Amino acid sequence: MSHAETKLYGLLDGARYPEALGPLVLEFASEVRSLFDGLPEEEAGYAAPFLVQIDDASADWVKQIDTMDQFNPCMTLIRSKHEIDALCAHLRCFLIADIGDDMTALVRYFDPRVLPALLDVWDRHVLALLTSPMETWLYRGHASEWIKVNVEGLKGFSSPEPIAITLSAEQIDELERRCDLDAVVETLTDLGEMDADTPYADRYGALEPMYRRALRWGLANTRDRMTFCSFCLRYGSAFDQQSHVKDVIEMAVRESCPLEDLLQTLPQYVWERLARRNEVRGATADTEAGT
User: pTM to 2 decimals?
Assistant: First the structure.
C-alpha cells in the first residue's frame, strides 16, 4: 500500500510534556483525539495520550515534537488507512488490561520507552489485534534512530475469536523489570545528576553499564540500583572497586540494608580519594581526546 493511500498519525504520551504537548497539537494539528475521552482517566487532561493527524511531516510543530521526543520520549508514528476516529476507538480498546482479582491496569503502549518491552512480553495474539489497522509503527524510545515494529510479522498471529486484554502477574513483573532503568534515568535527571539537555538515548546508554553492574552485585530494588548509579556518576564508573565501598555493597546485599545509608557511614577520606581518582581519570581522558 502506498503512502498516498494511508494517513500518518502521531501517538503522543501527553504525560511526558503535560504543559506543552496538548496545547501545541490542539493549536496546529488538523485532527486531535484523546485516547482517554469517555474513560474515567479523561480527567488527566493534557497528560493523556493523544492521537494526532500529521498532514505535513515537515511542519514546524511536528519538528518541534520530534525534537521533544529525542530528549524525553513521547511519540510513536503510525501509518494507517483508517480515519482518526476509527483508529482512536481501536487503540482505546487496548488501554486497560485485566490483571486478575477484579483489578485492572493501564497499558502504556503509547510510551515509546515501554513499547519495546510490551512487544516482547504481551501475547502475540493481542499484539496482532492491536496492530491490525496499522501499515507501519515506528518508535525511538531508547534509541537515537527510528525502530520499525514488525507489524507484518504479527499479522500471522491474528485470531478470528475475541481476545481478552490481560496481563499476568509474571508479565507485569517482567514489564517492571524491563522499565526499571527508565525509572532510574528519569529520577537522576529530575535530581540534576544527569543533564536533561542530553538526548535520552545518550543518557540511557551511558547509565546502562552502571545499572547492569548494580544488577551483578545483586542489588535487589530500584532505590539501591539508583543509589549505585548515582555514586558511579559522581565518583566514576569504577567507584565500587574501592575496598571499603565493596564491603558496604556486599553488606547491603547480604543484610538487605539500604545502600545509601551504608555508604554514608564511610569515612570522608574514602570519598576524597575517590574524587581525586575520578578527577585524574577525567583529565587523562581529556588529554587523550585532544591528541
Answer: 0.91
Q: What is the count of structural domains for the chain?
A: 2
pLDDT digits (tens, 9 = 90+) for 95-151: 999 999 999 999 999 999 999 999 999 999 999 999 999 999 999 999 999 999 999
Q: Residue 12, SS3?
A: strand
Is-contact 44 15, C-beta < 8 A? yes
Q: Which residue has the cell 514488525?
A: 150
Distance CA 42, CA 47 (A): 9
Q: Which of 145, 167, 189 is the last residue of a domain?
A: 167
Nearest to 73 by CA among 25, 143, 121, 130: 143
Same domain, yes or no: 20 and 87: yes
Task: Say if residue 49 is in the same domain as residue 107.
Answer: yes
- Kind of pairing between the strands at 147-148 and 96-100: unpaired
Measured over the CA atoms of residue 15, residue 16, residue 22 and residue 28, the dihedral's sign is negative
Based on the fold, state whether residues 23 and 144 are members of the same structural domain. yes
Q: What is the CA radius of gyration of the chain?
A: 22
Cβ 195 vs Cβ 204: under 8 Å:
no
Give Cα separations from 14 to 21, 222, 272 (angstroms). 6, 25, 43
Domain range for 161 is 3-167
Same domain (yes/no): 22, 70: yes
Same domain, yes or no, for 156 and 267?
no
Cβ 24 vs Cβ 67: under 8 Å:
no
By the 8 A CB rule, do 201 and 139 touch?
no
Cell of 269: 577520606
